Amino acid sequence: MIRQHILIVEDENHLGVGIKYNLEAEGFRVTLVEDGPTALRLIGNTGAGVDLMILDLMLPGMSGYAVCEAVRQRGIHLPVLMLSARTLAEDRTRGFDVGANQYLAKPFELPELISRIKNLLQSTPPRPEPPPAVETVAVQSTAFGNVEVNFATHEVFVAGDPQRMTPKELRLLKYFVEHPNRVIGRQELLSEVWEMPGDLQTRAVDQFVARLRKIIETNPAEPRHLLTIRDAGYRFLPEGPAS
Fold first, then answer.
1. What contacts 171, CB < 8 A, 6 or more positions away?
2. Which of 74, 169, 221, 242 could form a disulfide with 165 if both were Cys (CB 3.0 to 4.6 A apart)?
């Protein structure tokens, strides 16, 4: 049986470590992070692997409100227990408005925290056993169309001519090569290639894809390998589109 995984997002280290210690004693698997962007990277675009999040409201840089709202905007429904020293009704209301399931004011008694966690987990459908993982093959070199790439040596040839690519451009191309023929959203690329929150509003992905096309496509205006899927993301076709 899979141990339920709890993610604690708390910048007060002594408090976070104390909660982690006690929850591990209760049999949970626990991860402690101190800021919102790190939490969002761990949760990813699906929330798979996290059963419950304990979320402090006052975090550096990105508030607990913003973290919770970002999780809900991704369509992730894991239970969220929000912690805060704020006790005003409007603070609790705002927490519930952004998607928190419960709100617990600091200071709190440990038995109450554990009781609330167990109640939330009992009222949430259990996380199913994961299917056998399909391992991503770490590609060291590839060839498609008139392009040859050696990721280990950072060598790129198009129609036999050497091309210069930045490390980030190579990393993006490598991610496409390792995930061929499926639609990859911008949020996934931000998370996996840039290691940034998937909800971040930026044109970086589109700009880098445009730069890749100028290098690898014979006609960047009519790409054959790196296609845009409207309102969904991008799709890499090593063999080009079917005729």
1. 193
2. 169
Contact 145, 240 (CB under 8 A): yes
The 10s digit of each residue's pLDDT in 171-227 is 999 999 999 999 998 888 888 888 776 556 678 889 999 999 999 999 999 999 999
Res 137: pLDDT: 55
Residue 96, φ and ψ in degrees, nearest 5: -70, -35
Closest by alpha carbon to 99, among 67, 60, 61, 59? 67
Largest CA distance in the chain: 68
Give the CATH class of 141-236: mainly alpha
Where do you find CATH 1.10.10.10 in the chain? 141-236
CA 168/CA 15 separation, integer angstroms: 38
Please compute, for residue 52, the number of CA atoms within 13 A of its CA located in the half-sphere on the CB side.
26
| CATH class of residue range 5-122 | alpha beta
Predicted local distance difference test score (pLDDT) of residue 49: 83
